[in-house]
Automatic annotation (TrEMBL):
It comes from the Bacteria. Pfam families: HTH_21. It comes from Arenibacter certesii. This is HTH-like domain-containing protein. Residues 27-80 form the HTH-like domain.
Amino acid sequence: MRVSKNSYYHWFRNKDVERVETATMTLKKRIRFHFGQSMEIYGSYRIQQKLEREGLIYSRSYIALVMREMGLRSVLRRKFVVTTDSRHTFPVADNNLDRNFATMELGKKWVSDITYIRVDDQLNYLTTIMDLADRKIVGWALSEDMTVRNTVMKA
């Protein structure tokens, strides 16, 4: 074989690039096909399901990325679901701060928040208490249920 070393290594480095580009072009064609078949309704989740039935296995996030690069967006949007019930009969805490969060005295104004964290298909609740003077966390608690005893009192 009369090929220079430089030519061989150039070919060797780029042989996989062509295969990846071909696979990407095939994926884009199939995404465009299914998107068109759905009258531009399907998003990355449904298109991933269609592609899996064809034997093309890609993650939903990768399909969403490719769709974004192609400029494909579903004409349907998920409806906003209201999850807060403001007309309840439970007691509401007094608004002592009245949006005045500025303070220089340590320990004078504390605020807290609860964050939901999913661990092994189970919700856990992280309660944090922050001092507004130096914005440092002065207490926290992680619990498996959202009771006062296991969240706020432990923090």
